[in-house]
Amino acid sequence: MDTHAFDAIVIGAGIAGATVAAHLSADRRVALIEAEEAAGYHSTGRSAAIWIQNYGPPDVRTLTGLSRQFFEHPPEGFTDAPILAQRPVVFLAPPEQRDHLGRLLAEGTGLREASLAEVTVLIPALRPGYAVQAAIEDDAFDMDVAALHQGFLRLVRTRDGALALRSRTGRIERQAGLWHVQTDGGDIFTAPVVVNAAGAWGDQVAEQAGVAPLGLVPKRRTGVVIDPVPWQVTRWPLVQDVDHTWYIRTEARTKLMVSPADETDMHAHDVAPDELDVAIAIDRMQQALDIEVRRIEHSWAGLRTFTPDRSLAFGWSGADEGFFWCVGQGGYGIQTSPAAGKLVADVIAGRDPGPAGAILSAIDPRRFAKANPAVRVPA
User: Fold this and answer.
1) Has residue 296 got a pLDDT over 80?
2) pLDDT tier at 372 (50, 70, 90 boundaries)?
3) Residue 286 and residue 93: Cα distance in Å, rounded?
4) For 91-112, how does the pLDDT look when each residue is reduced to its tens digit (9 = 90+)?
5) CA 205, 50, 151: angle at the middle one, nearest 5?
6) d(CA 173, CA 211)
7) Other beta carbons within 10 Å of 185
8) What is the reported pLDDT for 379?
9) Which domains, from first to last, does the chain contain?
10) Contact between 22 and 112 (Cβ < 8 Å)
11) C-beta of residue 242 within 8 angstroms of C-beta of residue 132
């Protein structure tokens, strides 16, 4: 077995792990360990990513807002092309969701009420009578997930970091102040700090390290691609109902991606779409939009992993020195990634995290100790 010494080990090379590793690598040598043949194979590579300020719990919205500047002005050389393209979001309220839209407008940021006439201009396929009110978030934008992810991985490599693909973790133990992470290829990586950014596999990685799990829940999300001919959808906004039971967004300029916004509890695995969810997606979309579906061109599913209270879990494990959690991103991992990676690196380095520090108590993994007695905390 070969042993490789680093200053920090990040487990999981999706967007969360890549972003954390990139920020950590500014002042320490980092190993980024990934079980699959390609980084971002699971949730990151299956994300229909759009930056929406009014999405997720308060801690997520904080990191979403703090990430905006990075998307608008990435570091020089980070990517070869812009990583954002403006796409507004339209929230439709059927009669039973009218009160929910009122709350969204009262509590949201950058939202405005829109007339149904304005919305129909934006989405000419809208069926009369489906919605009684609507709102628009004008400043939302698409994100180029592949470019963003590769930009962070490039930073890791140029800063003398290591990306170990096809390296599924096995035994993880702490000896003499160092974590030893053994992979199925026989290599052992050592470092004083381990960051668990393994997404749906986060609890499994914790158990390998003898750390109590948090109770993470992976949930399946389904996407379906259709041809909306004769509608020209290139410039359509993302459209959803207020209660987020379905949504559509333009795919590859001329197609539509449709989702039933499903959240079916799953175990961690290479998840596939269920035919019922595909049918539900089309049915809910067609209740709102006059779009004929001649065939399903493509369908897929991914896992969005939540903590028990659906907020993030970033922070040290209370009783396990040098073990840091970075999990529970749900469906918000892409849009929060720049600020999330910086926050994790700042906490690990003992630096002031700035405005993001306001959410540290809300996202501390140790908050689950009372609900789960198996989660150990210091005496």
Assistant:
1) yes
2) low
3) 15
4) 999 999 999 999 999 999 999 9
5) 60
6) 10
7) 13
8) 31
9) 3-49+145-216+309-368 (3.50.50.60), 88-139+217-302 (3.30.9.10)
10) no
11) no
Q: Is 215 exposed, middle or buried (0-12, 13-18, 19+ CB in 10 A)?
A: middle
The model scores a pTM over 0.85: yes
Q: How confident is the model at residue 126 (pLDDT cuts 50, 70, 90)?
A: very high
CB 91 within 8 A of CB 116: no
Which residue intervals of 47-111 are DSSP H helices?
Answer: 58-72, 98-107
Phi/psi class of residue 295: alpha, beta or left (left: φ > 0; alpha: ψ in -120 to 50)?
beta
> Tokens 């304005």 sit at which residue?
118
Collapsing DSSP states into helix, strand and coil, what is residue 289? Answer: strand
Q: Which two tokens stand for residue 298?
A: 């493509």
Report which of 193, 199, 152 is spatially closest to residue 313, judged by C-alpha positions.
Answer: 199
Structure tokens at 151: 């930009």
Q: Which amino acid is at 209?
A: A
Q: How far apart are CA 91 and CA 55, in angstroms?
A: 12
pLDDT in tens, 355-368: 999 999 999 999 99
Interstrand relation of 188-191 and 8-11 (parallel, antiparallel or unpaired): unpaired
* Interhelix angle 58-72/333-349, nearest 10 degrees: 90
CA gap 17, 44 in Å, rounded: 11
Q: Detail the DSSP E strand segments found in 154-192.
A: 162-164, 169-175, 178-183, 188-191
Cα separation, 145 vs 40, whole angstroms: 10
Residue at token pair 């809208």: 126
CA–CA distances in Å: residue 62 to residues 85, 96, 147, 230: 21, 29, 23, 40
Return the structure tokens found at 374. 């198996």
Residue type, position 100, single letter: H
Number of residues in the chain: 379
Nearest to 92 by CA among 235, 242, 233, 237: 242
Cβ-contact 12, 201 below 8 angstroms: yes
What's the CA gap between 79 and 236, in Å, rounded? Answer: 26
Torsions phi, psi for 191 (to 5 deg)? -170, 155
- Please state, in angstroms and rounded to a whole number, the distance separating the CA atoms of residues 356 and 21: 18
Give the type of residue at 296.
I
DSSP per residue, 300-349: EEEEEEE-TTSS-EEEE-TTSTTEEEEE--TT-HHHHHHHHHHHHHHHHH
